[in-house]
């Protein structure tokens, strides 16, 4: 048996069995394929390639699902829940586009661990590295899956070295590949002393697993050709000498990653990885909040919004807020307090994203993700509690790196445009600044592609053709401080001042020199490139 890395022995079993994680990878490494196999082994789908909800009859009983069906949108892919052995897995999807986005960062605030998928032939690629750095900011535990071992791949030590060097994290092998490319026959399961043999003929079949009594067991020779066995012996001996042993605590703290080798498309190594998520997952963790932290085992329910998804239908304005439960046992119909507005909110139609049979959530535990349909009251960063004024922290908003002015093609539609822009600002899709002087808005994004996406969404959802033009500004900083100092600063710099959708003051400029000057001349003010969402 593997020992479970638990730093929270007091957790009720329903919470302790939850594993909430995301997959990070470079495009093409195999994230989609791996997700499908997770669902397959989680019993959520019958055949890989069929990620589809069953039970039409049950589905129609929910208005929400009807709405989803009518509009042909899918929010279900954003979070998927399924059972595996004694565990409940909640897999939260990270957005697919390659521009680093706040969306991705915020998704990673809702999980307790990440599975990093790398391509065995390509190693650590750029997007993997960026996403890894985001995980590191939160010391998230990372489990690594080295995929596509059925094809020509790099030398095992080389792959491990690259991860250690490029990502500065200790790597410990959980399994060891036997053979390479076309000669790849399977893996030696280091954690459990088993031989796992890949079946190339049937891609959905689980690998044959043979218990081995240590590396000297004669059984090995019955299954592994002599030259590969010799190589395995040599490599494992070297690995023992050179690589650290698995230390669950170091994994939990994000200093060490166990690596499994496999082939998602051949369903190989996937179960071992899933067992690993169960063992080292970890269970729902403590959430940082003000004025105190939130422990999952607290009996009172709390949760926070990490994502808002608006609909693609111009006739409706409903949104779904994705809430990560931080504590307690939530039951449908519960009245929660929306801490930002101090208003009660009856959560009567929450949605749980059960991959097998997506439906209304009757209950959810700390660690789960639920969707709450709403009309815009719920914003990213909002906290829901049973009354206590807690505010979950650590969900930042980044200063945009690209700024452009925007105006409606038809000047009479300025009000409409403002409404559309505010919606996207609340969704976290863009920063919207209203300059003190002049008309129009300045929109800020992190990746250039987002301007195009925004323009097409405004046209599609609001029927407004818009034009983005270059802006005289290139940088934005939030400014905070006591009122007198802030007023004085604003009065002296009106040409550079704007307000964001929350009404907070923003300083716009094109010169780093300006920013340095403000910092020097107004020591009582704080200029920041990030702002906590609230
Ligand atoms: P994503 O972009 O990370 O979601 O990657 P996909 O899951 O879409 O996979 C990208 C490509 O790699 C697809 O053509 C897959 O069929 C292929 N692929 C995924 N896993 C494996 C594997 O284990 N071996 C091989 N040879 N190909 C794979």
Automatic annotation (TrEMBL):
PROSITE patterns: G_TR_1 (PS00301), G_TR_2 (PS51722)
Membrane listed as a keyword: no
Localization (cell): Cytoplasm
Record carries keyword Isomerase: no
Function statement: Increases the formation of ribosomal termination complexes and stimulates activities of RF-1 and RF-2. It binds guanine nucleotides and has strong preference for UGA stop codons. It may interact directly with the ribosome. The stimulation of RF-1 and RF-2 is significantly reduced by GTP and GDP, but not by GMP.
InterPro entries: EF-G-like_DII (IPR053905), EFG_III/V (IPR035647), G_TR_CS (IPR031157), P-loop_NTPase (IPR027417), PrfC (IPR004548), RF3_C (IPR032090), RF3_dom_3_sf (IPR038467), Small_GTP-bd (IPR005225)
UniProt source species: Ruegeria pomeroyi (strain ATCC 700808 / DSM 15171 / DSS-3)
Family, similarity comment: Belongs to the TRAFAC class translation factor GTPase superfamily. Classic translation factor GTPase family. PrfC subfamily.
Protein name: Peptide chain release factor 3
Main localization category: cytoplasm
